[in-house]
Amino acid sequence: MACITVDINTFRLSSPVAAFVGLLSVAAGLGVGHLVAGLVSSRASPFLAVGNSAIDLTPLWLRDFAIRTFGTYDKTILLLGMAVVIGLIGVGVGLVSRRSRTPGLVLIVVLGTLATAAVTTRPKAGLLDFLAPLAALIASVGTFVVLHERGRTSGAQAAEGATVEASRRALLTGSAAVVAGAGIAAAGGQLLAGRGGVEASRQAVGRIVPTLSPQRIPPKADFAADGSPTFITPNRDFYRIDVNLTLPRLRAEDWRLRVHGMVARELTLTWRDLISRPLIERPVTMSCVSNEVGGHLISTAHFTGVSLADVLSEVGVRPGADQVFTTSVDGWTCGSPTAVLADPGRHAMLVIGMNGAPLPIEHGFPVRMIVPGLYGFVSGTKWITDMELTTFDAQRAYWLQRGWAQRAPMKTMSRIDSPAAFGRVSPDTPITGVAWAPTKGIKTVEVRLDHGPWQPAELSTEVNLDTWRMFRLRGPWEPGHHLAEVRATDKTGYTQTADRNGPIPDGATGWHSVQFTVSELGSSLGPGSSGVICVNEG
Ligand SMILES: Nc1nc2c(c(=O)[nH]1)N[C@H]1C(S)=C(S)[C@@H](COP(=O)(O)O)O[C@H]1N2
Ligand SMILES: [Mo]
Q1: What is the C-alpha separation between 349 and 307, in angstroms, rounded?
Q2: Ligand 1 pocket mutation, candidates 75, 78, 233, 241, criterion most atoms within 8 A of CB
Protein backbone atom coordinates (compact mmCIF):
# COMPACT_ATOMS: atom_id res chain seq x y z
CA MET A 1 0.00 0.00 0.00
CA ALA A 2 1.56 3.23 -1.14
CA CYS A 3 1.64 6.05 1.25
CA ILE A 4 2.11 9.76 0.47
CA THR A 5 3.69 11.64 3.27
CA VAL A 6 2.40 15.14 3.75
CA ASP A 7 4.39 17.32 6.08
CA ILE A 8 1.82 19.28 8.03
CA ASN A 9 4.29 22.17 8.26
CA THR A 10 4.39 22.77 4.52
CA PHE A 11 0.71 22.11 3.96
CA ARG A 12 -1.33 25.00 2.50
CA LEU A 13 -4.93 25.74 3.34
CA SER A 14 -7.29 25.84 0.37
CA SER A 15 -8.34 29.40 -0.53
CA PRO A 16 -11.99 29.05 0.52
CA VAL A 17 -11.06 27.56 3.90
CA ALA A 18 -8.42 30.24 4.47
CA ALA A 19 -10.80 33.05 3.50
CA PHE A 20 -13.47 31.61 5.77
CA VAL A 21 -11.09 31.32 8.72
CA GLY A 22 -9.95 34.94 8.28
CA LEU A 23 -13.50 36.26 7.94
CA LEU A 24 -14.71 34.41 11.04
CA SER A 25 -11.75 35.59 13.12
CA VAL A 26 -12.47 39.22 12.34
CA ALA A 27 -16.20 38.72 12.93
CA ALA A 28 -15.49 37.11 16.30
CA GLY A 29 -13.40 40.12 17.31
CA LEU A 30 -16.08 42.61 16.30
CA GLY A 31 -18.81 40.63 18.07
CA VAL A 32 -16.90 40.30 21.33
CA GLY A 33 -15.78 43.94 21.13
CA HIS A 34 -19.39 45.06 20.71
CA LEU A 35 -20.44 42.90 23.70
CA VAL A 36 -17.77 44.30 26.02
CA ALA A 37 -18.61 47.81 24.80
CA GLY A 38 -22.23 47.14 25.79
CA LEU A 39 -20.97 46.49 29.32
CA VAL A 40 -18.51 49.38 29.44
CA SER A 41 -19.90 52.11 27.18
CA SER A 42 -21.37 52.01 23.70
CA ARG A 43 -18.82 54.47 22.35
CA ALA A 44 -16.13 51.80 22.99
CA SER A 45 -17.47 49.41 20.34
CA PRO A 46 -14.63 48.93 17.83
CA PHE A 47 -17.09 48.68 14.93
CA LEU A 48 -18.92 51.90 15.85
CA ALA A 49 -15.77 53.74 16.86
CA VAL A 50 -14.22 53.01 13.47
CA GLY A 51 -17.45 54.23 11.85
CA ASN A 52 -17.51 57.38 13.94
CA SER A 53 -13.88 58.12 13.17
CA ALA A 54 -14.67 57.62 9.51
CA ILE A 55 -17.45 60.21 9.81
CA ASP A 56 -15.21 62.70 11.59
CA LEU A 57 -12.41 62.24 9.06
CA THR A 58 -14.73 62.42 6.07
CA PRO A 59 -13.72 65.32 3.87
CA LEU A 60 -16.25 68.09 3.33
CA TRP A 61 -17.06 67.21 -0.29
CA LEU A 62 -17.60 63.55 0.51
CA ARG A 63 -19.95 64.29 3.41
CA ASP A 64 -21.83 66.68 1.17
CA PHE A 65 -22.01 64.01 -1.52
CA ALA A 66 -23.22 61.38 0.96
CA ILE A 67 -25.99 63.60 2.30
CA ARG A 68 -27.02 64.61 -1.22
CA THR A 69 -26.98 61.07 -2.56
CA PHE A 70 -28.24 59.05 0.37
CA GLY A 71 -30.01 61.76 2.36
CA THR A 72 -30.60 60.70 5.91
CA TYR A 73 -29.80 57.09 5.02
CA ASP A 74 -26.12 57.97 4.90
CA LYS A 75 -25.53 56.16 8.22
CA THR A 76 -27.03 52.88 7.07
CA ILE A 77 -24.94 53.12 3.90
CA LEU A 78 -21.82 53.82 5.94
CA LEU A 79 -22.43 50.86 8.27
CA LEU A 80 -23.09 48.52 5.34
CA GLY A 81 -20.03 49.81 3.49
CA MET A 82 -17.89 49.27 6.59
CA ALA A 83 -19.20 45.74 7.03
CA VAL A 84 -18.28 44.95 3.44
CA VAL A 85 -14.79 46.49 3.72
CA ILE A 86 -14.06 44.78 7.04
CA GLY A 87 -15.36 41.50 5.61
CA LEU A 88 -12.96 41.81 2.67
CA ILE A 89 -10.09 42.56 5.04
CA GLY A 90 -11.03 39.41 6.97
CA VAL A 91 -10.89 37.39 3.75
CA GLY A 92 -7.48 38.97 3.11
CA VAL A 93 -6.27 37.95 6.56
CA GLY A 94 -7.12 34.36 5.69
CA LEU A 95 -5.68 34.35 2.18
CA VAL A 96 -2.25 35.64 3.23
CA SER A 97 -2.11 32.87 5.84
CA ARG A 98 -2.59 29.78 3.70
CA ARG A 99 0.91 28.46 4.44
CA SER A 100 1.70 30.03 7.78
CA ARG A 101 -0.50 31.82 10.28
CA THR A 102 2.04 34.55 11.00
CA PRO A 103 1.01 37.11 8.29
CA GLY A 104 -2.63 36.80 9.36
CA LEU A 105 -1.73 37.30 13.01
CA VAL A 106 0.27 40.41 12.13
CA LEU A 107 -2.68 41.81 10.14
CA ILE A 108 -5.09 41.11 13.00
CA VAL A 109 -2.82 42.93 15.45
CA VAL A 110 -2.65 45.89 13.04
CA LEU A 111 -6.45 45.93 12.80
CA GLY A 112 -6.71 45.69 16.59
CA THR A 113 -4.36 48.62 16.98
CA LEU A 114 -6.39 50.73 14.54
CA ALA A 115 -9.61 49.87 16.37
CA THR A 116 -7.99 50.74 19.70
CA ALA A 117 -6.85 54.05 18.26
CA ALA A 118 -10.39 54.74 16.97
CA VAL A 119 -11.90 53.96 20.37
CA THR A 120 -9.42 55.87 22.51
CA THR A 121 -9.48 58.97 20.34
CA ARG A 122 -13.28 59.34 20.59
CA PRO A 123 -14.24 62.47 22.55
CA LYS A 124 -14.73 61.66 26.25
CA ALA A 125 -13.19 58.19 25.88
CA GLY A 126 -12.65 56.68 29.32
CA LEU A 127 -9.93 54.36 30.60
CA LEU A 128 -12.31 51.38 30.64
CA ASP A 129 -13.17 51.92 26.97
CA PHE A 130 -9.82 50.34 26.19
CA LEU A 131 -11.20 46.96 27.33
CA ALA A 132 -13.50 46.54 24.32
CA PRO A 133 -10.88 46.67 21.54
CA LEU A 134 -8.54 44.61 23.74
CA ALA A 135 -11.19 41.89 24.12
CA ALA A 136 -11.83 42.11 20.38
CA LEU A 137 -8.14 41.54 19.66
CA ILE A 138 -7.90 38.56 22.01
CA ALA A 139 -11.05 36.99 20.56
CA SER A 140 -9.81 37.52 17.01
CA VAL A 141 -6.36 36.05 17.64
CA GLY A 142 -7.79 33.12 19.60
CA THR A 143 -10.34 32.28 16.91
CA PHE A 144 -7.77 32.58 14.19
CA VAL A 145 -5.24 30.30 15.89
CA VAL A 146 -7.80 27.61 16.67
CA LEU A 147 -9.59 27.60 13.29
CA HIS A 148 -6.35 27.84 11.33
CA GLU A 149 -5.02 24.80 13.17
CA ARG A 150 -8.23 22.83 12.60
CA GLY A 151 -8.22 23.79 8.93
CA ARG A 152 -4.65 22.57 8.48
CA THR A 153 -5.22 19.32 10.31
CA SER A 154 -8.32 18.58 8.30
CA GLY A 155 -6.70 19.55 4.99
CA ALA A 156 -3.47 17.67 5.64
CA GLN A 157 -5.31 14.51 6.59
CA ALA A 158 -7.40 14.75 3.46
CA ALA A 159 -4.24 15.01 1.39
CA GLU A 160 -2.88 11.91 3.11
CA GLY A 161 -6.00 10.08 2.13
CA ALA A 162 -6.81 9.49 5.76
CA THR A 163 -10.29 9.41 7.22
CA VAL A 164 -11.07 13.06 7.54
CA GLU A 165 -14.46 12.88 9.18
CA ALA A 166 -13.28 13.73 12.68
CA SER A 167 -10.99 16.64 11.78
CA ARG A 168 -13.42 18.08 9.26
CA ARG A 169 -16.12 17.90 11.89
CA ALA A 170 -13.83 19.73 14.29
CA LEU A 171 -13.36 22.53 11.76
CA LEU A 172 -17.08 22.76 11.03
CA THR A 173 -18.21 22.73 14.66
CA GLY A 174 -15.53 25.26 15.52
CA SER A 175 -16.74 27.55 12.73
CA ALA A 176 -20.38 27.14 13.66
CA ALA A 177 -19.53 27.97 17.26
CA VAL A 178 -17.71 31.12 16.15
CA VAL A 179 -20.59 32.27 13.92
CA ALA A 180 -23.12 31.71 16.69
CA GLY A 181 -20.88 33.21 19.37
CA ALA A 182 -20.04 36.35 17.38
CA GLY A 183 -23.72 36.89 16.54
CA ILE A 184 -24.88 36.41 20.11
CA ALA A 185 -22.10 38.64 21.44
CA ALA A 186 -22.93 41.44 19.00
CA ALA A 187 -26.65 41.22 19.75
CA GLY A 188 -25.92 41.14 23.48
CA GLY A 189 -23.79 44.25 23.14
CA GLN A 190 -26.60 45.99 21.29
CA LEU A 191 -29.09 45.04 24.04
CA LEU A 192 -26.78 46.11 26.84
CA ALA A 193 -26.11 49.45 25.13
CA GLY A 194 -29.86 50.01 25.04
CA ARG A 195 -30.29 49.55 28.79
CA GLY A 196 -30.32 52.49 31.15
CA GLY A 197 -33.94 53.39 30.67
CA VAL A 198 -33.75 56.42 28.38
CA GLU A 199 -37.03 55.44 26.75
CA ALA A 200 -38.57 54.97 30.21
CA SER A 201 -37.22 58.35 31.28
CA ARG A 202 -38.76 59.90 28.17
CA GLN A 203 -42.13 58.20 28.79
CA ALA A 204 -42.11 59.43 32.38
CA VAL A 205 -41.81 63.03 31.19
CA GLY A 206 -45.30 62.86 29.68
CA ARG A 207 -46.86 65.62 27.62
CA ILE A 208 -44.99 68.92 27.55
CA VAL A 209 -47.38 71.78 28.28
CA PRO A 210 -46.17 75.37 27.96
CA THR A 211 -46.72 77.77 30.86
CA LEU A 212 -47.57 80.66 28.59
CA SER A 213 -50.33 80.16 26.07
CA PRO A 214 -48.75 79.08 22.80
CA GLN A 215 -49.31 80.43 19.34
CA ARG A 216 -52.00 78.48 17.47
CA ILE A 217 -51.64 77.73 13.79
CA PRO A 218 -54.28 79.76 11.92
CA PRO A 219 -56.43 78.23 9.16
CA LYS A 220 -54.97 78.30 5.64
CA ALA A 221 -51.36 78.23 6.86
CA ASP A 222 -50.58 75.67 4.17
CA PHE A 223 -51.78 74.46 0.78
CA ALA A 224 -51.20 70.81 1.66
CA ALA A 225 -54.31 69.77 -0.26
CA ASP A 226 -52.62 71.13 -3.39
CA GLY A 227 -49.24 69.55 -2.68
CA SER A 228 -47.36 71.89 -0.33
CA PRO A 229 -45.95 70.40 2.90
CA THR A 230 -48.20 70.53 5.97
CA PHE A 231 -47.40 73.63 8.02
CA ILE A 232 -46.33 71.56 11.04
CA THR A 233 -44.09 68.59 10.28
CA PRO A 234 -45.02 65.52 12.36
CA ASN A 235 -42.11 64.42 14.56
CA ARG A 236 -41.63 61.17 12.64
CA ASP A 237 -41.19 63.12 9.38
CA PHE A 238 -38.94 65.87 10.77
CA TYR A 239 -35.59 65.76 8.96
CA ARG A 240 -32.68 64.46 11.01
CA ILE A 241 -29.00 65.32 10.65
CA ASP A 242 -26.20 64.48 13.07
CA VAL A 243 -22.84 62.75 13.15
CA ASN A 244 -24.06 59.97 15.44
CA LEU A 245 -24.06 56.31 14.46
CA THR A 246 -25.59 55.48 17.82
CA LEU A 247 -27.84 57.85 19.69
CA PRO A 248 -26.61 59.33 22.95
CA ARG A 249 -28.60 57.89 25.85
CA LEU A 250 -29.09 60.56 28.45
CA ARG A 251 -31.85 60.28 31.04
CA ALA A 252 -33.70 63.46 31.97
CA GLU A 253 -32.96 62.86 35.66
CA ASP A 254 -29.21 62.66 34.96
CA TRP A 255 -29.11 65.70 32.69
CA ARG A 256 -27.06 68.75 33.71
CA LEU A 257 -26.20 71.88 31.77
CA ARG A 258 -23.23 73.87 32.98
CA VAL A 259 -23.23 77.50 31.85
CA HIS A 260 -19.76 78.94 32.41
CA GLY A 261 -16.83 80.79 30.87
CA MET A 262 -17.00 84.58 30.50
CA VAL A 263 -19.90 85.01 32.91
CA ALA A 264 -20.40 86.83 36.20
CA ARG A 265 -22.12 83.86 37.89
CA GLU A 266 -21.72 80.25 36.77
CA LEU A 267 -24.93 78.24 36.65
CA THR A 268 -25.72 74.54 36.53
CA LEU A 269 -29.23 73.61 35.44
CA THR A 270 -30.89 70.27 36.15
CA TRP A 271 -34.02 68.86 34.50
CA ARG A 272 -36.07 69.89 37.59
CA ASP A 273 -34.70 73.43 37.34
CA LEU A 274 -35.65 73.60 33.70
CA ILE A 275 -39.24 72.36 33.99
CA SER A 276 -39.97 74.60 36.95
CA ARG A 277 -39.20 77.68 34.82
CA PRO A 278 -41.74 79.40 32.56
CA LEU A 279 -42.01 77.31 29.40
CA ILE A 280 -42.54 79.11 26.12
CA GLU A 281 -43.74 77.45 22.95
CA ARG A 282 -43.26 78.66 19.38
CA PRO A 283 -43.51 77.23 15.89
CA VAL A 284 -40.05 77.41 14.31
CA THR A 285 -38.72 76.34 10.89
CA MET A 286 -35.35 74.59 11.04
CA SER A 287 -33.06 73.79 8.17
CA CYS A 288 -29.73 72.16 7.57
CA VAL A 289 -26.98 74.07 5.80
CA SER A 290 -26.48 70.99 3.60
CA ASN A 291 -29.93 71.46 2.09
CA GLU A 292 -29.62 71.66 -1.69
CA VAL A 293 -31.79 73.93 -3.81
CA GLY A 294 -35.07 72.00 -3.90
CA GLY A 295 -33.97 69.77 -0.98
CA HIS A 296 -36.00 68.46 1.95
CA LEU A 297 -33.68 69.10 4.92
CA ILE A 298 -36.17 71.62 6.28
CA SER A 299 -39.08 71.12 8.70
CA THR A 300 -41.29 73.04 11.10
CA ALA A 301 -42.44 72.11 14.61
CA HIS A 302 -43.85 73.63 17.77
CA PHE A 303 -40.85 73.83 20.10
CA THR A 304 -41.35 74.17 23.85
CA GLY A 305 -38.63 75.28 26.22
CA VAL A 306 -36.89 77.87 28.30
CA SER A 307 -35.81 81.25 26.96
CA LEU A 308 -32.06 81.34 26.41
CA ALA A 309 -32.03 85.13 26.64
CA ASP A 310 -33.27 84.77 30.24
CA VAL A 311 -30.59 82.21 31.11
CA LEU A 312 -27.87 84.41 29.60
CA SER A 313 -29.05 87.49 31.46
CA GLU A 314 -29.04 85.51 34.71
CA VAL A 315 -25.43 84.40 34.36
CA GLY A 316 -24.32 87.90 33.33
CA VAL A 317 -22.36 87.64 30.09
CA ARG A 318 -19.06 89.50 30.30
CA PRO A 319 -18.25 92.01 27.53
CA GLY A 320 -16.35 90.54 24.60
CA ALA A 321 -17.85 87.04 24.90
CA ASP A 322 -19.10 87.00 21.31
CA GLN A 323 -19.54 83.20 21.06
CA VAL A 324 -21.80 80.78 22.90
CA PHE A 325 -19.93 77.50 22.52
CA THR A 326 -22.13 74.49 23.23
CA THR A 327 -21.16 70.84 23.57
CA SER A 328 -23.35 67.78 23.47
CA VAL A 329 -22.89 64.76 25.72
CA ASP A 330 -20.87 62.97 23.03
CA GLY A 331 -18.45 65.82 22.42
CA TRP A 332 -19.99 67.42 19.26
CA THR A 333 -19.59 71.20 19.43
CA CYS A 334 -21.38 74.22 18.02
CA GLY A 335 -20.63 77.95 18.02
CA SER A 336 -23.41 80.56 17.98
CA PRO A 337 -23.25 84.37 18.16
CA THR A 338 -23.98 85.59 21.71
CA ALA A 339 -25.76 88.70 20.43
CA VAL A 340 -28.35 86.54 18.66
CA LEU A 341 -28.98 84.20 21.60
CA ALA A 342 -29.19 87.04 24.12
CA ASP A 343 -31.76 88.97 22.07
CA PRO A 344 -35.15 88.29 23.76
CA GLY A 345 -36.98 89.05 20.49
CA ARG A 346 -35.15 86.19 18.80
CA HIS A 347 -36.70 83.48 20.97
CA ALA A 348 -33.64 81.22 21.20
CA MET A 349 -34.56 78.31 23.46
CA LEU A 350 -33.36 75.38 25.49
CA VAL A 351 -35.94 73.00 24.07
CA ILE A 352 -37.55 70.08 25.93
CA GLY A 353 -40.69 69.55 23.85
CA MET A 354 -41.46 69.06 20.17
CA ASN A 355 -45.07 69.15 18.96
CA GLY A 356 -46.27 68.53 22.52
CA ALA A 357 -44.15 65.43 23.11
CA PRO A 358 -40.84 65.17 24.97
CA LEU A 359 -38.03 65.58 22.42
CA PRO A 360 -37.60 62.35 20.44
CA ILE A 361 -34.22 60.79 21.32
CA GLU A 362 -32.91 61.38 17.79
CA HIS A 363 -33.83 65.06 18.03
CA GLY A 364 -31.88 65.60 21.25
CA PHE A 365 -33.67 64.17 24.30
CA PRO A 366 -33.71 65.43 26.96
CA VAL A 367 -32.63 68.97 25.99
CA ARG A 368 -31.45 70.70 22.82
CA MET A 369 -30.95 74.24 21.60
CA ILE A 370 -33.05 75.95 18.89
CA VAL A 371 -32.31 79.38 17.46
CA PRO A 372 -34.72 80.66 14.79
CA GLY A 373 -32.95 81.94 11.69
CA LEU A 374 -29.65 80.06 12.08
CA TYR A 375 -28.76 76.82 10.30
CA GLY A 376 -28.71 73.79 12.61
CA PHE A 377 -24.94 73.32 12.68
CA VAL A 378 -24.42 76.73 14.33
CA SER A 379 -27.44 76.63 16.65
CA GLY A 380 -29.21 73.30 17.07
CA THR A 381 -27.06 71.42 19.62
CA LYS A 382 -28.86 68.20 20.54
CA TRP A 383 -28.22 66.33 23.83
CA ILE A 384 -26.68 69.58 25.09
CA THR A 385 -24.67 69.40 28.34
CA ASP A 386 -22.27 72.33 28.28
CA MET A 387 -22.51 76.01 27.41
CA GLU A 388 -19.40 78.14 27.51
CA LEU A 389 -19.37 81.90 26.99
CA THR A 390 -16.21 82.57 25.02
CA THR A 391 -14.93 84.27 21.86
CA PHE A 392 -14.95 83.12 18.23
CA ASP A 393 -11.16 83.46 18.33
CA ALA A 394 -10.75 81.12 21.27
CA GLN A 395 -12.85 78.11 20.24
CA ARG A 396 -13.57 76.49 16.87
CA ALA A 397 -16.65 74.27 16.63
CA TYR A 398 -16.96 70.84 14.95
CA TRP A 399 -18.04 71.90 11.44
CA LEU A 400 -15.93 75.05 11.41
CA GLN A 401 -12.89 72.78 11.86
CA ARG A 402 -14.08 70.91 8.77
CA GLY A 403 -14.42 73.85 6.41
CA TRP A 404 -17.93 75.15 7.00
CA ALA A 405 -18.70 78.75 7.95
CA GLN A 406 -18.37 80.33 11.36
CA ARG A 407 -21.58 82.32 11.10
CA ALA A 408 -24.50 80.95 9.13
CA PRO A 409 -27.86 82.72 9.08
CA MET A 410 -30.50 80.87 7.05
CA LYS A 411 -30.88 82.16 3.51
CA THR A 412 -34.08 83.32 1.83
CA MET A 413 -35.13 80.34 -0.30
CA SER A 414 -38.09 78.69 -1.99
CA ARG A 415 -39.00 75.27 -3.35
CA ILE A 416 -41.65 73.94 -5.73
CA ASP A 417 -43.35 70.81 -4.35
CA SER A 418 -46.07 70.30 -6.93
CA PRO A 419 -45.98 69.45 -9.77
CA ALA A 420 -43.24 66.95 -8.94
CA ALA A 421 -40.18 67.01 -11.19
CA PHE A 422 -41.06 65.36 -14.53
CA GLY A 423 -44.60 64.82 -13.30
CA ARG A 424 -47.68 64.66 -15.55
CA VAL A 425 -50.55 66.83 -14.41
CA SER A 426 -53.88 68.14 -15.63
CA PRO A 427 -54.11 71.72 -17.01
CA ASP A 428 -55.67 73.11 -13.83
CA THR A 429 -53.17 71.69 -11.30
CA PRO A 430 -51.87 74.60 -9.20
CA ILE A 431 -48.13 75.11 -8.77
CA THR A 432 -47.45 75.00 -5.02
CA GLY A 433 -44.51 74.93 -2.70
CA VAL A 434 -42.83 76.65 0.18
CA ALA A 435 -40.66 79.72 0.80
CA TRP A 436 -38.72 80.72 3.89
CA ALA A 437 -36.69 83.62 5.24
CA PRO A 438 -36.65 82.99 9.00
CA THR A 439 -36.58 86.13 11.21
CA LYS A 440 -37.23 88.30 8.14
CA GLY A 441 -40.47 86.88 6.78
CA ILE A 442 -41.61 86.31 3.22
CA LYS A 443 -42.98 89.30 1.31
CA THR A 444 -43.67 87.82 -2.13
CA VAL A 445 -43.16 84.62 -4.05
CA GLU A 446 -43.09 84.70 -7.82
CA VAL A 447 -43.33 81.85 -10.30
CA ARG A 448 -42.58 81.93 -14.01
CA LEU A 449 -43.27 79.40 -16.73
CA ASP A 450 -40.93 78.76 -19.63
CA HIS A 451 -38.91 81.95 -18.93
CA GLY A 452 -42.05 84.06 -19.32
CA PRO A 453 -42.96 86.97 -17.02
CA TRP A 454 -42.76 86.47 -13.23
CA GLN A 455 -46.22 86.04 -11.75
CA PRO A 456 -46.94 86.76 -8.07
CA ALA A 457 -48.21 83.63 -6.28
CA GLU A 458 -50.89 83.52 -3.61
CA LEU A 459 -49.38 83.19 -0.11
CA SER A 460 -50.69 81.15 2.83
CA THR A 461 -51.60 82.90 6.10
CA GLU A 462 -48.44 84.09 7.85
CA VAL A 463 -47.85 82.35 11.19
CA ASN A 464 -44.77 84.27 12.32
CA LEU A 465 -41.57 85.56 10.74
CA ASP A 466 -39.59 82.50 11.88
CA THR A 467 -41.55 79.95 9.92
CA TRP A 468 -41.97 78.92 6.32
CA ARG A 469 -44.79 80.13 4.12
CA MET A 470 -46.59 78.25 1.37
CA PHE A 471 -47.38 79.60 -2.09
CA ARG A 472 -49.84 78.63 -4.82
CA LEU A 473 -50.27 79.72 -8.42
CA ARG A 474 -53.37 78.53 -10.23
CA GLY A 475 -53.44 77.53 -13.91
CA PRO A 476 -54.75 76.54 -16.28
CA TRP A 477 -51.60 75.66 -18.18
CA GLU A 478 -51.28 74.84 -21.86
CA PRO A 479 -50.85 71.14 -22.65
CA GLY A 480 -47.22 70.16 -23.28
CA HIS A 481 -43.86 70.40 -21.54
CA HIS A 482 -43.10 73.26 -19.14
CA LEU A 483 -40.36 74.61 -16.94
CA ALA A 484 -41.53 76.30 -13.73
CA GLU A 485 -39.14 78.44 -11.67
CA VAL A 486 -39.68 80.09 -8.30
CA ARG A 487 -38.06 82.96 -6.42
CA ALA A 488 -38.89 84.54 -3.06
CA THR A 489 -38.49 88.09 -1.80
CA ASP A 490 -38.19 88.61 1.96
CA LYS A 491 -39.45 91.55 3.97
CA THR A 492 -36.09 93.32 3.86
CA GLY A 493 -36.73 93.60 0.09
CA TYR A 494 -34.07 91.04 -0.84
CA THR A 495 -34.94 88.80 -3.80
CA GLN A 496 -33.32 85.38 -4.01
CA THR A 497 -30.31 85.40 -6.30
CA ALA A 498 -30.38 83.24 -9.43
CA ASP A 499 -26.72 82.29 -8.85
CA ARG A 500 -26.56 78.57 -8.25
CA ASN A 501 -24.20 77.63 -5.43
CA GLY A 502 -23.81 74.39 -3.48
CA PRO A 503 -24.22 74.27 0.31
CA ILE A 504 -20.54 74.68 1.23
CA PRO A 505 -19.67 76.74 3.29
CA ASP A 506 -22.79 78.61 4.40
CA GLY A 507 -25.82 77.34 2.48
CA ALA A 508 -26.97 76.82 -1.13
CA THR A 509 -28.36 79.60 -3.34
CA GLY A 510 -30.28 79.69 -6.61
CA TRP A 511 -33.79 79.29 -7.93
CA HIS A 512 -35.52 75.94 -7.79
CA SER A 513 -37.11 74.76 -11.01
CA VAL A 514 -39.10 71.74 -12.15
CA GLN A 515 -39.97 70.38 -15.54
CA PHE A 516 -43.42 68.91 -15.92
CA THR A 517 -45.90 67.89 -18.56
CA VAL A 518 -49.49 69.00 -18.84
CA SER A 519 -51.75 66.37 -20.36
CA GLU A 520 -54.90 67.11 -22.29
CA LEU A 521 -57.92 66.65 -20.06
CA GLY A 522 -59.05 63.06 -20.13
CA SER A 523 -55.62 61.53 -20.61
CA SER A 524 -53.83 59.82 -17.73
CA LEU A 525 -53.46 62.09 -14.75
CA GLY A 526 -50.56 62.09 -12.34
CA PRO A 527 -50.27 63.03 -8.68
CA GLY A 528 -51.90 66.29 -7.75
CA SER A 529 -54.36 65.93 -10.59
CA SER A 530 -57.84 67.34 -10.29
CA GLY A 531 -59.14 63.79 -10.42
CA VAL A 532 -58.08 63.35 -6.81
CA ILE A 533 -60.44 64.71 -4.18
CA CYS A 534 -58.51 66.36 -1.35
CA VAL A 535 -59.78 67.60 1.99
CA ASN A 536 -58.13 70.70 3.37
CA GLU A 537 -57.38 70.40 7.09
CA GLY A 538 -57.07 74.14 7.49
N1 LIG B 1 -25.12 66.79 19.20
C2 LIG B 1 -25.36 67.14 17.93
N3 LIG B 1 -26.23 68.14 17.69
C4 LIG B 1 -26.49 68.51 16.41
C5 LIG B 1 -25.85 67.87 15.32
C6 LIG B 1 -24.93 66.83 15.62
O7 LIG B 1 -24.32 66.23 14.72
N8 LIG B 1 -24.72 66.49 16.93
N9 LIG B 1 -26.14 68.27 14.02
C10 LIG B 1 -26.64 69.62 13.85
C11 LIG B 1 -27.14 69.86 12.51
S12 LIG B 1 -25.99 69.97 11.27
C13 LIG B 1 -28.47 70.09 12.25
S14 LIG B 1 -28.99 70.59 10.71
C15 LIG B 1 -29.49 69.94 13.31
C16 LIG B 1 -30.56 68.98 12.86
O17 LIG B 1 -31.49 68.76 13.90
P18 LIG B 1 -32.59 67.64 13.71
O19 LIG B 1 -31.85 66.35 13.47
O20 LIG B 1 -33.40 67.63 14.96
O21 LIG B 1 -33.40 68.03 12.51
O22 LIG B 1 -28.93 69.43 14.52
C23 LIG B 1 -27.70 70.01 14.87
N24 LIG B 1 -27.36 69.52 16.18
MO1 LIG C 1 -27.00 70.70 9.46
Answers
A1: 5
A2: 241
